[in-house]
Write a structure and sequence with these properties.
The protein has about 180 residues and is α+β, with helices and mostly antiparallel strands. It folds into two domains: about 5-80, Sulfite Reductase Hemoprotein,Domain 2 (Sulfite Reductase Hemoprotein, domain 2), CATH 3.90.480.10; about 100-180. It is about 25% helix and about 25% strand. It has helices spanning about 5, 35-45, 70-80, 125-130, 150-160; strands at about 10-15, 20-25, 30, 50-55, 60-65, 100-105, 110-115, 120, 135-140, 145-150. The strands form two sheets. The protein has a five-stranded antiparallel beta sheet with strand order 1-2-5-4-8. It has a five-stranded antiparallel beta sheet with strand order 3-9-10-7-6. A hairpin with a 4-residue loop joins strand 4 (about 50-55) and strand 5 (about 60-65). The chain starts with a helix and ends in a 20-residue tail after the last helix. This is Nitrite/Sulfite reductase ferredoxin-like domain-containing protein. InterPro entries: NiRdtase/SiRdtase_haem-b_fer (IPR005117), Nit/Sulf_reduc_fer-like_dom_sf (IPR036136).
Length: about 180
């Protein structure tokens, strides 16, 4: 039988320090469509993985996938458009190290809200709620979760719903500091 890495080259890797299987999901420009994020959240919950790790390299990592779930998890990633080998990150304007945590008005009635989470981790539940907003989500190099192009009323609801789930919208939080990225 082939190894998990053979089934989906570029996606599954075994952490040499812990022997835990890791799925590394590359995001072009750090962007993930809402439906793909929701599908990933469901897959993470269904295979019993504990969280989605945000990285500073436009990737999402899922640790602790049991070997017996690799085929199913890989199929679900592919169905969501996330199963391709890692893409080379493309630098976007404004996605350097400028903080994107908080509420930012566009001036056209639309806003961008940015948040961080403790340790740069998303639970399956957090990812599912972020996907439910229905717009693409961008993960920055500072492991910020940016939801852009939403109306003020929607943004207000997003903050009210996501904050109690552990999304931190305060730019002064210790988790929003550059030291938290390391």
């Amino acid at each position: 039988m082939s190894s998990p890495a053979d089934r989906s080259p570029g996606v599954f890797h075994r952490d040499p320090a812990t022997a835990v299987l890791v799925a590394r999901i590359g995001l072009i420009d750090g962007r993930i469509e809402a439906a793909a994020l929701t599908a990933l959240a469901d897959a993470v919950a269904d295979v019993g993985a504990d969280h989605i790790q945000l990285t500073a390299h436009h990737r999402l990592e899922v640790h602790g996938i049991a070997d017996r779930h690799v085929g199913e998890f890989g199929d679900r990633l592919a169905d969501a458009g996330l199963g391709a080998p890692l893409a080379v990150p493309v630098h976007r304007e404004g996605d350097g190290m400028d903080p994107q945590v908080g509420w930012f008005a566009h001036g056209d009635g639309l806003v961008r809200v940015g948040a961080v989470t403790a340790h740069g981790r998303l639970s399956a539940e957090q990812a599912k709620y972020a996907g439910a907003i229905g717009v693409p989500v961008t993960i920055t190099r500072r492991r910020e979760i940016v939801i852009d192009g939403i109306g003020e009323a929607v943004a207000d609801t997003v903050v009210r719903v996501l904050a109690p789930l552990g999304f931190i919208f305060d730019a002064n939080s210790e988790w929003a500091s550059p030291a938290a990225v390391d």
